[in-house]
Known about the structure:
Largest sheet: 8 strands, antiparallel
Distance between the termini: 25 Å
Order of helices and strands: HHEHEEEEEEEEEH
Bound molecules: zinc ion
Strand content: 15-25%
Structural class: alpha+beta
Amino acid sequence: MSKTVRRSLAGLALAASATAVPVVASAQDAGAGTPLRATAVLHGPGGFAEARPRSTGGTEAPDSPSSSTGAGSGNSTGPIFPIRGRHRYGTGSAAFGGGRGHQGQDVFAACGTRLVAAIAGRVSQATYQSAAGNYLVVDAANGTSQTYMHLARPATVQEGDRVDAGDPIGVVGQTGDAEGCHLHFEFWTAPGWYKGGKPVDPLPRLRRWDAQD
Length: 213
Ligand SMILES: [Zn+2]
């Protein structure tokens, strides 16, 4: 997203408080109907191994140590770069703080490129908004939030779901106010997205995770 999204952040805050149940239902349907989930199992050498089955409702889904292939750091829930394909970082108005108050970093990738949760947490938003398009917010255990916007289709997870780092969440798109296929990624300090936290420049983290891939 570039410029007009900033005007609509109040709208996003509204979306945060007014959760539309029918939207959630359609997101779930879309998720179940697409082949996306089936693709989550590849990535042999990369690190993350399997898509955890969708946890329904609030039942606890214990962390499964078996979800690690043993590659990488050995921490199965460590941060993972969210775009699973070729990408490039936006600059200028597509960078954090670009224009007037761009609250995230745009990372361009082909529409349809798989997205995974960068950090484990609970999905607090998974809906559509005119500026953000299809988007979701994940609240991590430490209170920070990660926001993923402009997905091509509704997120393949739904509000209340718990996700591990590396779990599929959808695919890159340009829904909402977006020019060109990209992920708009935000990182909010605790206590999180429109809950008192503040957006910080996510680029250093993104680059670090990218380099660890
Ligand atoms: Zn953006």
